[in-house]
Amino acid sequence: MSHCIVLDSVTHLVAAHRGKAAYCASHGGMYAGFYAAKSGSGAMILNDAGVGREQAGIAGLDLLERLGVPAAAIAHTSARIGDGADGHTRGRLSFVNGAARRIGLEVGMTCATALHRLAEAKLSPSPAPPPMAEVRFVIAGGNDRLRVFGIDSNALVTAGDVGHIAVTGSHGGLLGNKPESAIKVDVRAAVYNDAGVGIDAAGISRLPALDARGIAGACVSCTSARIGDARSTYDDGVISALNEIAIRYGGAVGQSCREFVAAMVRSAG
């Protein structure tokens, strides 16, 4: 198992992981697949994140298939999204791409067994993926004091985002069940995708952690918006879960993401 990598997020891949098999507890969406390919992964297992709208939760598997990279996803109902150790222990495959199937992976296989099989295969680093469209952008609706911005990954938050509103494409799960992983800086509000909620309600576990830091947090339903796509979060998303601070600021389950963001802006005065 020395060639197997188990990580809480695909964004934790480093140069030393190039060409190796990894289980990363990220969603299996297009951004995650792109990041895995860009990092030169040899084989990848992700989380199906509830599959969701337009099967966005597993779109990264198709991207990796086109690049010749074996890839699979575990069921979000089998292990906690964002928790690599839990996925390796409890996860069971729900989707397998053609390249992984040819190595012997199949639906229902344990994550541990699948990862071992991938690690024993002859792997090559992924070729570079096609460029992705902009992954960070400004959203209209803010004001001079309060900026609203979209980011396809929560990892793209910067120090300059303190006090502003983040609309992300990321899942709403803590990484490694660590509260400090909810978000890197203290934004005013943050929106995520509920990733089908999943086992142990892992897909929305960032919300109480954000509450503890005084940050309004909400998730949109994975069936309403494409996970990994912040524009879809904002344009299509419907709020499915939120924390106490978000409720205090005027958020409500059933709001569109646009309505939720507008309420967060109004609450700032």
Quick synopsis:
With about 270 residues, this protein is α/β, with parallel strands linked by helices. The protein is built from 9 helices and 11 strands.
Describe the structure.
With 269 residues, the chain is an alpha/beta fold. The protein has two domains: 4-120; 136-267, no CATH class. It has helices at 30-38, 59-66, 84-90, 98-103, 111-120, 206-212, 230-236, 244-248, 257-267; strands spanning 4-7, 21-27, 43-47, 71-74, 93-96, 136-139, 148-151, 165-171, 189-193, 216-220, 239-242. A six-stranded mixed β-sheet has the order 6-7-8-9-10-11, with helices on both faces. The protein has a five-stranded mixed β-sheet with strand order 1-2-3-4-5, sandwiched between helices. Helix 1 packs parallel to helix 2. It is elongated, with a radius of gyration of 18 Å.
Keywords:
2 domains; 269 residues; single chain; 20% strand; 9 helices; alpha/beta
If strands are numbered along the chain, what order do they take across the biggest sheet?
Answer: 6-7-8-9-10-11
Order of secondary-structure elements: EEHEHEHEHHEEEEHEHEHH
Structural class: alpha/beta
The number of distinct β-strands equals: 11
Bin the helical content.
25-40%
Largest sheet: 6 strands, mixed
Assembly form of the protein? single chain
Low-confidence segments, ≥5 residues, pLDDT <50?
none
* Amount of beta strand: 15-25%
Distance between the termini: 55 Å
